[in-house]
Amino acid sequence: MHSFIQYLIRLSIFSLIIVVIAALLYGFVFTAYYQAIVPVALLFFMGVSMLIHYILTRSSTNNANVFLRSFMLATFVKLVICALFFALYIMNRKQDAISFTIMFFSLYVLYTSFETIALLKHTKIKQSS
Questions:
Q1: Comparing C-alpha atoms, which of 116, 64, 117, 107 is closest to residue 82?
Q2: How many Cα atoms within 13 Å fall on the side-chain side of residue 94?
Q3: Taking a C-beta distance cutoff of 8 angstroms, is the pair 59, 67 a contact?
Q4: Are 116 and 105 in contact, with CB atoms under 8 Å apart?
Q5: Phi and psi at residue 35, in whole multiples of 5°?
Q6: What is the rounded CA–CA span in Å between residue 44 and residue 64?
Q7: Exposed, middle or buried: residue 24 (CB in 10 Å: 0-12, 13-18, 19+)?
Q8: Per-residue pLDDT tens for 75-104?
Q9: Which residues of the chain have pLDDT under 70?
Q10: What does the longest C-alpha to C-alpha distance in the chain come to?
């Protein structure tokens, strides 16, 4: 549980950095492309990242097969959840499709990279223990 709290702290700091960068970009560079969904998307990715990390760290036992199955299932579920969120927004706001796609894909890549690095660190620590 201690490592999950550390993950939450790191995730919060990472998200705060993204918020600051997004505020600067949308405030000064891409002012015409700001959408009210941006804060919701950030919270969405934070929530999905917390859930995926919790599930995968719980399944990171000594059995590699269990972890691999859990990883593949969690990745599939994440893709489905993200695709649903994306599709529902695009269906309701077709005029914002391009800017939303760029923002959503950027957040997806950033948070997936963060999750992967955190998970690699967790499994490396678990192996050395």
A1: 107
A2: 1
A3: yes
A4: no
A5: -130, 145
A6: 29
A7: exposed
A8: 999 999 999 999 999 999 888 889 899 999
A9: 1, 61-62, 125-129
A10: 52
DSSP 8-state symbol, 37: T
pTM of the model: 0.87
User: From CA 102, how far away is CA 38, in angstroms rounded?
Assistant: 11
13: buried, middle or exposed (CB in 10 Å: 19+, 13-18, 0-12)? exposed
- Both tokens assigned to 127: 């192996």
Residues 6+ apart with CB under 8 A from 118: 7, 10, 11, 53
Question: For the chain, which residues make up each domain, given as ranges?
Answer: 2-128
Centre a 10 Å sphere on the Cβ of residue 103 and count the other Cβ atoms it contains: 22
Look at residues 125, 112, 108, 110 and name the one whose alpha carbon lies nearest to residue 4: 125
CB-CB contact of 27 with 93 (8 Å): no
Q: Which residue has the tokens 């649903």?
A: 84
Q: Tell me how far apart the alpha carbons of residues 3 and 22 are, in angstroms, rounded to a whole number.
A: 28
Q: How far apart are CA 2 and CA 43, in angstroms?
A: 22
